[in-house]
């Protein structure tokens, strides 16, 4: 909450209106977004350099991802701000609160783990996570492990979601079945 207040004060000082911070404003300013991208509305996008951001098709963004195409830490030393293009390939998943830094390309079919700081480019078909983000495994290895976990985990249909008015009894059932494990919901 404090971060949002500071951010609002910063934007007011800089003369940036809330309308300029919308996805549409970033696209109008030059950001390229492919087809079937989800979750960008909940992200923080570098409006001051949004034309340096390119996102491929079928990309999913979890909440509060940061796309930062500039680095002002260089201003004091060089009197210039470092900038770099951000390019996210097709069929990628970017986890919650991941930071994608200037000059980074994320290859097609890659996954960025939640909370990761991506300061170097990511090849295709890998899972990266951490600060700084490092390759954890290939997407194929991740999916094999995931399928193994899926086989032995509790599974719940879409009726177990808020969209389908999950009941208190159903919530308790989920809690009980996942006391010591993870589960999956449709």
Mean pLDDT: 92
- The proportion of residues forming helix, as a percent range, comes to 25-40%
Order of the strands making up the biggest sheet: 4-9-12-14-15
Structural class category: alpha/beta
Strand fraction: 15-25%
What is the radius of gyration? Answer: 19 Å
Oligomer state equals single chain
Task: Describe this protein's structure.
- The model has no long low-confidence stretch (mean pLDDT 92).
- This protein has helices at residues 2-14, 23-28, 75-78, 139-152, 168-177; strands at residues 32-33, 44-45, 53-55, 60-61, 66-67, 70-71, 82-83, 86-88, 93-94, 99-100, 105-106, 111-112, 117-118, 126-130, 133-138, 155-156, 184-185.
- Strands 4-9-12-14-15 form a five-stranded mixed β-sheet.
- It is 25% helix and 23% strand.
- With 186 residues, it is α/β, with parallel strands linked by helices.
Keywords for this structure?
23% strand; 5 helices; 4-stranded parallel β-sheet; 25% helix; 186 residues
Structural topology:
Blueprint (H helix, E strand, L loop, with lengths): L1 H13 L8 H6 L3 E2 L10 E2 L7 E3 L4 E2 L4 E2 L2 E2 L3 H4 L3 E2 L2 E3 L4 E2 L4 E2 L4 E2 L4 E2 L4 E2 L7 E5 L2 E6 H14 L2 E2 L11 H10 L6 E2 L1
Parallel strand pairs: 1-3, 2-5, 3-8, 4-9, 5-10, 8-11, 9-12, 10-13, 12-14, 16-17
Antiparallel strand pairs: 6-7, 14-15
């Amino acid at each position: 909450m404090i971060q949002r207040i500071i951010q609002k004060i910063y934007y007011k000082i800089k003369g940036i209106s809330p309308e300029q911070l919308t996805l549409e404003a970033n696209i109008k300013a030059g950001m390229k977004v492919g087809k079937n991208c989800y979750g960008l509305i909940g992200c923080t996008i570098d409006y001051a350099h949004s034309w340096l951001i390119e996102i491929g098709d079928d990309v999913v963004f979890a909440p509060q991802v940061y796309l930062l195409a500039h680095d002002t830490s260089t201003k004091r030393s060089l009197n210039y701000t470092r900038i770099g293009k951000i390019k996210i390939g097709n069929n990628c998943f970017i986890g919650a609160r991941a930071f994608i830094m200037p000059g980074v390309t994320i290859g097609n079919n890659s996954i960025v783990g939640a909370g990761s700081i991506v300061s170097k480019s990511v090849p295709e078909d890998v899972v990266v996570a951490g600060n700084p983000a490092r390759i954890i495994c290939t997407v194929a290895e991740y999916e094999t492990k995931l399928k193994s976990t899926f086989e032995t985990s509790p599974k719940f249909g879409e009726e177990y979601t808020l969209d389908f008015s999950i009941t208190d009894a159903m919530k308790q059932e989920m809690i009980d079945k996942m006391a010591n494990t993870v589960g999956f919901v449709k």
